[in-house]
Amino acid sequence: MIDPDDLAAFRAAVADAKPLPQTDRVHLGGPMPPPRPLQHIADEHAALHESLYGAISLQDRLEGGDEPNYTRNGLASTVLRDLRRGRWVIQDEIDLHGLNREEARQLLAEFMVESLHYGKRCVRVIHGKGLRSPQRTSVLRQLVRGWLAQREEVLAYCQAKPHDGGEGALIVLLRAQKAQHR
Hints:
Oligomer: single chain
Number of helices: 6
Distance between the termini: 86 Å
Radius of gyration: 30 Å
Largest sheet: 5 strands, mixed
Structural class: alpha+beta
CATH class of one domain: Alpha Beta
Order of helices and strands: HHHEHEHEHEE
């Protein structure tokens, strides 16, 4: 219970107080600063670093057109021609849209291992066209080409036909799975 003397003392102490005006808002200082796209900045720096210091193969230096393609050394030129003409059936695909550089690299590596494990020979890798990226350039486009060229299981790749993704995708030919001895 509240002591009546304490209540009287409290009322005397706050007799001159006036209630605060009612408001629905909480004011916590000035306006917030604009957001900084830290992941985008990190991806741009990583792409720049890789383009400046990444390994450049002879195939990359000789490639003259805009259409990306790659053929492992020692393979006949007919392999790439057949891949471009769609003579290989696309057995699986991976879509890397919206991923950052590290996520895309990890997911692509796992996809390649899984595809090889299940004996898939022809797959589509969708990296996007970069239409929603700043300057409308695809950061993943160049990175994916380099990553694929470094993988031993990749025999060749070329740009997808328009109905398969066009410049936003690559068709990749993988080596045949080695026979397992029991």
